[in-house]
């Protein structure tokens, strides 16, 4: 009869490989040399925002996400970093390029979609609406403080029964004497419960118009939507407008019709096509590092053909997605970017990012369902990103109309 192996005679376990250096992995993973397409200033900005994410977001995001807390204390730090209203000129705004804004969005979303979403709501939506369509008095009153993170804005377009079809919004603004009275409701409005000013879009007798509503105005209320399975380190609200009375000076004078809010949505969509690649890249890096360290059947997961195929497929889509983002950003900086091209980036990059995050979670096995690792958190967040600023279906129909000349929305 054979003698059972005892602990003293059992073979020694193979030591785990040394932890790979992240920057080395990033260099190896840039197979197309995409860093060579960025200027020295763009690379310096990336390093600055990446360092901020490493210092302020990564060490804390697990707790923020688990506890469903948006870290309000970080808002002024983001202002100091220069990422609020980053692409806007004048009025205390940073005035950086579209590519620089995209790079910042990508690095912030590598930390968490919720934090990038704050920057998007503040800058691409609320600040852009004021900058593009507001009066000089409105711009001077709000934009400098918003750029510094001293004032927070929100953007009220979506309604409980009007998401993908904002033309059917029921919020109405009635002109009354020398002012306006607003009634209605909005849903999924980021930051509304902590905002100082809300950009509210409403039907009027003269079409859709935008209004700046100080959130302490009687009749305005915002209630955070809870609980959520996605964007837990972010705030989205139901907003209620009950006989909200505003002066004529609250009207955004330059915006008339849906062109006003859509111009802001395109700014946000542009940031998303970059940001989603940040979530994808972070998930890929997590899976790559883990697969090189994790031993199964006496060798690293990365040594198996199936794992390598997964990693390669993830890397290919990230490299293509970042290349698409850079190209789109260069078009935007040149002033030649068309809305349909933004739809290409938003549809493709978010769709691929979700698939990458899910595949990364699979490589992590059971450990991947914990908050010790980022991919499933990113995947959950991206379900929101995939939905807001135009669903996959909406962007598919935008592209379908472009290539066929036929609108299939109705």
From TrEMBL:
Keywords, alphabetical: FAD, Flavoprotein, Oxidoreductase, Transit peptide
Pathway terms, separated by semicolons: Amino-acid metabolism; lysine degradation; Amino-acid metabolism; tryptophan metabolism
Acyl-CoA dehydrogenase/oxidase N-terminal domain boundaries: 39-150
Acyl-CoA dehydrogenase/oxidase C-terminal domain sequence ranges: 257-403
Catalytic activity line of the entry: glutaryl-CoA + oxidized [electron-transfer flavoprotein] + 2 H(+) = (2E)-butenoyl-CoA + reduced [electron-transfer flavoprotein] + CO2
SUPFAM superfamilies associated with the record: Acyl-CoA dehydrogenase C-terminal domain-like, Acyl-CoA dehydrogenase NM domain-like
Cofactor: FAD
Residue ranges of the region described as Disordered: 1-20
Residue span, Acyl-CoA oxidase/dehydrogenase middle domain: 154-244
Homology family: Belongs to the acyl-CoA dehydrogenase family.
Protein name stated in the entry: glutaryl-CoA dehydrogenase (ETF)
Taxonomic path: Bacteria, Bacillati, Actinomycetota, Actinomycetes, Micrococcales
């Amino acid at each position: 009869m054979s003698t059972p192996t005892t602990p003293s005679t059992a073979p020694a376990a193979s030591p785990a490989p040394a932890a790979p250096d992240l920057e080395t992995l990033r260099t190896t993973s840039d197979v197309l040399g995409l860093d060579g397409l960025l200027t020295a200033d763009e690379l310096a900005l990336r390093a600055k925002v990446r360092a901020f994410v490493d210092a302020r977001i990564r060490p804390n995001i697990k707790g923020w996400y688990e506890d469903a807390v948006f870290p309000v204390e970080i808002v002024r730090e983001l202002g100091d970093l220069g990422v609020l209203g980053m692409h806007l000129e004048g009025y205390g705004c940073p005035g950086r390029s579209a590519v620089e804004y995209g790079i910042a969005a990508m690095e912030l979303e590598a930390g968490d979609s919720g934090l990038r979403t704050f920057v998007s709501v503040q800058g691409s939506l609320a600040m852009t609406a004021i900058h593009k369509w507001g009066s000089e008095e409105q711009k001077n009153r709000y934009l400098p403080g918003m750029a510094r993170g001293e004032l927070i804005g929100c953007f009220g377009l979506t309604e409980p029964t009007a998401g993908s079809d904002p033309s059917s919004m029921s919020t109405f603004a009635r002109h009354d004497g020398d002012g306006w009275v607003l009634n209605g409701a909005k849903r999924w409005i980021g930051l509304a419960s902590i905002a100082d000013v809300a950009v509210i879009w409403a039907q009027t007798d003269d079409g859709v118009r935008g209004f700046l509503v100080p959130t302490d105005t009687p009749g305005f209320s915002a209630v955070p939507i809870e609980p959520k399975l996605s964007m837990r380190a972010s705030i989205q609200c139901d907003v209620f407008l009950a006989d909200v009375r505003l002066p004529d000076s609250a009207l955004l004078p330059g915006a008339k019709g849906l062109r006003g809010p859509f111009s802001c949505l395109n700014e946000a969509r542009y940031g998303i096509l970059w940001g989603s690649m940040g979530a994808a890249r972070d998930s890929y890096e997590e899976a790559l590092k883990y697969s090189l360290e994790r031993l199964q059947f006496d060798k690293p997961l990365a040594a198996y053909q199936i794992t390598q195929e997964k990693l390669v497929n993830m890397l290919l889509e990230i490299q293509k997605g970042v290349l698409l983002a850079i190209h789109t950003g260069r078009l935007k900086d040149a002033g030649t970017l068309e809305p349909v091209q933004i739809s290409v980036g938003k549809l493709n990059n978010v769709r691929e990012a979700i698939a990458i995050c899910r595949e990364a979670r699979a490589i992590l096995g059971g450990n991947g369902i914990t908050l010790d690792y980022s991919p499933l958190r990113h995947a959950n967040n991206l379900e929101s990103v995939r939905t807001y600023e135009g669903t996959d279906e909406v962007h598919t129909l935008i592209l379908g109309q472009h290539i066929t000349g036929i609108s299939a929305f109705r």
